[in-house]
Fold:
Amino acid sequence: MVARASVCLRQLGRCRSQEVRFGRFLANENVTVERLIEGWSERTGVAARGRHVLAIQDTTELNFHTTPERRRELGEIGKGTGHGALLHAMLAIDAHDGTCLGLVAGQIWTRQGRVATPHERRPLADKESRRWLATAQDAKLKLAGADIVTVIDDREGDIYAKWATLPGPGFHLITRVMHDRVLADGSSLYAAGEELAPAGTAMIDLRSRGPQRPARRAELVLRYGPVQLRRPRQTMERGLPPEVGLNLIEVFEPHPPEKTEPIQWRLLTTHGIADPGDAWRIVNWYKERWIIEQLFRVLKTQGLKLEDSQLATADRLLKLIAIAAKAAAITIQLLQARDGHGNQQAEIAFGQSEIGALDALNTELEGKTVLQKNPHPQHSLAWASWIIARLGGWDGYPSSKPPGPITFRNGLEYFHAIVTGWTLRNVCMP
Structure:
């Protein structure tokens, strides 16, 4: 999938027999979604050893085109207007340099009808939101060799049971606030934040979030302080402590550009904060959450186009999602390698025959000047990434805009065609 930038079985197989083999693999009862997800972390756990890892988790909906006559056993997603599956994934990032270390854990499912019992009357074990705790709990085992693990969630992960049960030595949480919670003294979380004294300002670069939210620089004001959350009265979970002590960080934009929604982040964390530098560091760690959105874009619109799959049944689609998520994570590593981040080898994404083709291509693509040379160590992932980007149309100059997912997709498609010819290079024609 990585080499051919596709999940289509016809494109993955070089011939009809190989396409059939891929189909049989997905149909095999011994190939399970759970085991495929278990394989996500095989290399990630090794890469995480001795590091401070940001374990970023989020959920995305996969909308597979269906008709009333051809639902493919897929349940409703969104507000019931589409049918498909849901993917919850956790991606490991090095806290110091942002290097993607790979997938950690997650869940993939399709809904089986609608639940009649109201959300507030169901225990956590019967809610989809349990995935935020279960995936983080898996991370404790999968990333056991890391020096520190910090789990980062967006608003949906703001769950009291998570705050009460998951933190431990070397295992921390950062979550954006969803609820204006009641504190131990009866006041509200939002009111407590507004009473905190400003602790400094900083200019922060905000990444693009689509045409409506282009990249820009924003001046943000920081304030922070300790808070004591009170256990929600309506919770059905037993045995949770009556209070949990955390640190609240607020950053807000006092003077946003005209017709622009101001930035305001409220973050809760288990990390200690001794000074404003610690608080800004946590804000910057939370900013790394964007990379999992990039993973989902590579999986869907800007890369593998998973939602275009025409596999006939839900069980096969769920397995395909598990495999494609791994391929998307490797593609992210290629994107990062273009800048020389990390020290992964090319064999993480390419076979030996493909690396041979890359050697030959590198000689052809390099120019005569220093600026036109591949600047990365031979057979590193960064070295391969430079070659693929050049095949996709990038000019290779350091001053040019870095290649993005579409450039890599085009380069990988071109590379696949070249590799087909490379495998025939020693074939004698009569």
About this structure: The radius of gyration is 24 Å. The chain is about 35% helix and 20% strand.
